[in-house]
């Protein structure tokens, strides 16, 4: 049990549980103190917030809660503290699935503090953008969270007993499914809890259950069979590109995401493109180190096919369903494109297996074993 609570996934579940608890208490507060009318706070924020879960069961529960006036901090204040650890832990869960070594590097020390500072700056700018009577207190709470959260996450990262494991083709496919499922659950929490839309939860529950099943299944497959499928040069390129993208995107991620909302669409797009280009260059250098010209030429053809198939698959997935949030469509598109690219790379790596030169000592040691 002690080991379990040193994992970012356990901490993320804890934070999500606290967020939902706050939503229940917020609903009680609004029902008892404001007669179910959210206009006292909703008027300061854009549409799409505060869909209460005020059915008979919630009203019956609210009627038995003593001193509901003490629940006033549930209005925006608790969320202001919990949003930062929720985002950082979700990122950490994904990175840990791909590389424990890089998870330890990024979720402790200077990178973690830098991410905490940049994320908090973005959150505070958003608070100012939607200025309201709660803004000053929320900013103070977010600054406190920016100090406390890295201390907590850094401690759990240092005490996490996980060890680095090589990922084979099966592990990469499982990682893609795992990341999509986690992303779906994160979006569910954002919609139903962080935006105070607990009333949306029944409608989101079926997709959340599907995502939970995929998450558990992908984790089981990765833990049991993740090293199967010796990765060739093309698959190693995809793996390295994904790893470098996650590492480089860690600190500026939220600034890029919210730049569009703050009127900085072009700088945000430029920053995102710069991260992608840098990750691609680093991945190519890592994967092609030591390969001869013939193999590099074959690799170019492989990557072109993977990009083409992945792009088409991602585009089809993008338009396969309508989504309340564009992030859901992007997530589905990216996951399908990634899985298609990995499978194409794995299939085209096989005929070239005899000409590959392993570019990392760890890879060579694994093959000799």
TrEMBL record:
<feature type="transmembrane region" description="Helical">
    <location>
        <begin position="76"/>
        <end position="95"/>
    </location>
</feature>
<keyword id="KW-0472">Membrane</keyword>
<protein>
    <submittedName>
        <fullName>Uncharacterized protein</fullName>
    </submittedName>
</protein>
<feature type="transmembrane region" description="Helical">
    <location>
        <begin position="329"/>
        <end position="348"/>
    </location>
</feature>
<feature type="transmembrane region" description="Helical">
    <location>
        <begin position="12"/>
        <end position="31"/>
    </location>
</feature>
<feature type="transmembrane region" description="Helical">
    <location>
        <begin position="234"/>
        <end position="256"/>
    </location>
</feature>
<keyword id="KW-0812">Transmembrane</keyword>
<feature type="transmembrane region" description="Helical">
    <location>
        <begin position="296"/>
        <end position="317"/>
    </location>
</feature>
<keyword id="KW-1133">Transmembrane helix</keyword>
<feature type="transmembrane region" description="Helical">
    <location>
        <begin position="262"/>
        <end position="284"/>
    </location>
</feature>
<feature type="transmembrane region" description="Helical">
    <location>
        <begin position="205"/>
        <end position="222"/>
    </location>
</feature>
<feature type="transmembrane region" description="Helical">
    <location>
        <begin position="167"/>
        <end position="190"/>
    </location>
</feature>
């Amino acid at each position: 049990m002690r080991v379990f609570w040193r994992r970012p996934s356990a901490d993320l579940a804890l934070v999500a549980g606290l967020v939902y608890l706050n939503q229940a208490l917020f609903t009680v507060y609004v029902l008892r103190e404001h007669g179910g009318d959210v206009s006292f706070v909703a008027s300061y924020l854009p549409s799409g917030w505060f869909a209460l879960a005020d059915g008979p069961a919630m009203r019956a529960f609210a009627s038995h809660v003593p001193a509901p006036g003490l629940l006033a901090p549930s209005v925006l204040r608790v969320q202001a503290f919990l949003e930062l650890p929720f985002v950082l832990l979700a990122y950490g869960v994904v990175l840990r699935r791909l590389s424990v070594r890089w998870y330890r590097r990024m979720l402790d020390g200077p990178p973690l503090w830098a991410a905490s500072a940049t994320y908090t700056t973005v959150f505070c700018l958003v608070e100012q953008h939607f200025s309201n009577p709660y803004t000053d207190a929320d900013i103070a709470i977010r600054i406190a969270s920016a100090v406390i959260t890295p201390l907590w996450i850094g401690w759990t990262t240092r005490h996490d007993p996980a060890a680095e494991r090589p990922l084979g083709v099966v592990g990469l496919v499982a990682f893609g499914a795992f990341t999509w499922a986690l992303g779906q659950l994160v979006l569910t929490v954002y919609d139903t809890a962080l935006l105070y839309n607990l009333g949306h939860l029944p409608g989101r529950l079926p997709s959340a259950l599907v995502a939970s099943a995929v998450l558990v299944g992908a984790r089981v497959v990765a833990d049991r069979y993740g090293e199967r499928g010796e990765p060739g040069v093309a698959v190693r390129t995809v793996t390295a590109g994904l790893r470098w993208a996650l590492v480089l995107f860690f600190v500026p991620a939220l600034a890029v995401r919210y730049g569009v909302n703050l009127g900085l669409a072009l700088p945000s797009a430029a920053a995102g493109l710069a991260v992608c280009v840098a990750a691609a260059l680093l991945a190519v250098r890592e994967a092609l180190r030591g390969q001869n010209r013939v193999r590099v030429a074959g690799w170019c053809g492989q990557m072109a096919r993977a990009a083409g198939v992945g792009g088409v698959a991602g585009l089809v997935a993008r338009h396969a369903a309508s989504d309340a949030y564009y992030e859901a469509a992007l997530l589905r598109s990216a996951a399908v494109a990634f899985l298609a690219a990995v499978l194409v790379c794995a299939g085209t790596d096989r005929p070239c297996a005899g000409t590959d030169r392993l570019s990392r000592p760890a890879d060579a040691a694994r093959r000799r074993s």
